[in-house]
């Protein structure tokens, strides 16, 4: 065999080996809680509470849905913003409450495989506020008979902007880094917004219409709890939970 053929054969073998190696390379693993110790369910406690507003709540602004006839057909012409939802008894809806600090880094938390759904219905994101764990899929759906685009605007994760011109289209996103909060918007309808809290653990909740929330399964310990609202800002408190204890905490936002 001539020297040129030997060189050519070696080159082919090298390229094939490189292609196989590249094709079998494992995808990057998302950043998760790095411990090996599962939480002992027999000793875990829980945290519940309520978020309220004191004073006169901001008045909800009307949304310009009339700019898109499909939005009017889906939701009606006189829809107001859901950025601030304060009930008759003062409860604040759509507050993201989560364990900000204090978890032992040795704990491990399985990543849910079920996708969390973020719907675009009536030309609004539903729900407006939600939480996921790192590595858990977020599936954004266009349920409207009009053009939407899903524009995720994180600061720690990768930004994305995907058009959904046809009703029923879906987009699956996976965040690889903890971040509170990731803003979603629609470049077609400027009033559309949603916020996603991305955490390496499952200890978070979004307040209901009466401002209540519940976070089960917390191991005993002392934690920093944060309540986040897109308009009112954030508040933090420290809470200690004993074995099998049901602790409570209350947050109150105020006008001005």
Strands in their spatial order, largest beta sheet: 5-11-10-7-8
The helicity comes to: 10-25%
Q: What is the count of DSSP helices, taking H or I runs of 4+ residues?
A: 2
- Strand-pairing-aware structural class: mainly beta
Explained architecture:
With 256 residues, the protein is mainly beta. The protein has one domain (45-254): Cupredoxins -  blue copper proteins (Immunoglobulin-like). Helices cover 11% and strands 40% of the residues. The chain has helices at residues 3-23, 69-75, and strands at 45-54, 96-101, 116-121, 124-126, 129-133, 137-142, 148-153, 160-164, 170-174, 179-185, 193-199, 204-206, 212-218, 221-229, 233-241, 246-254. The strands form 4 sheets. The chain has a 5-stranded mixed sheet, with no helix packed on it. A 4-stranded antiparallel sheet has the order 12-2-14-15, with no helix packed on it. Strands 4-3-6-9 form a 4-stranded mixed sheet, with no helix packed on it. β7 (148-153) and β8 (160-164) form a beta hairpin. The relative contact order is 0.24.
């Amino acid at each position: 065999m001539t020297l040129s053929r030997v060189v050519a054969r070696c080159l082919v073998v090298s390229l094939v080996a490189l292609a196989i190696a590249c094709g079998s390379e494992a995808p990057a693993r998302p950043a998760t809680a790095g411990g090996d110790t599962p939480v002992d369910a027999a000793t875990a406690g829980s945290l519940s509470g309520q978020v309220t507003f004191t004073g006169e709540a901001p008045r909800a602004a009307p949304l310009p849905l009339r700019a898109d006839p499909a939005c009017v057909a889906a939701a009606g012409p006189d829809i107001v913003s859901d950025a601030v939802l304060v009930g008759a008894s003062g409860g604040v809806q759509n507050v993201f409450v989560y364990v900000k600090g204090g978890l032992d880094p040795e704990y491990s938390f399985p990543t849910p495989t079920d996708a969390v759904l973020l719907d675009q219905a009536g030309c609004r994101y539903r729900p407006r506020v939600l939480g996921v764990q790192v590595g858990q899929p977020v599936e954004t759906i266009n349920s409207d008979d009009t053009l939407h685009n899903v524009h995720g605007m994180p600061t720690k994760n990768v930004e994305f902007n995907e058009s959904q011109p046809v009703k029923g289209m879906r987009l699956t996103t996976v965040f690889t880094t903890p971040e509170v909060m990731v803003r979603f918007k629609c470049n077609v309808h400027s009033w559309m917004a949603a916020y996603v809290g991305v955490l390496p653990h499952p200890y978070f909740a979004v307040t209901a219409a009466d401002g209540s929330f519940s976070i089960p399964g917390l191991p005993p310990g002392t934690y920093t709890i944060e309540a986040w609202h897109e308009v009112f800002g954030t508040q933090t408190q420290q809470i200690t939970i004993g074995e099998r204890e049901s602790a409570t905490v209350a947050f109150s936002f105020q006008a001005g």
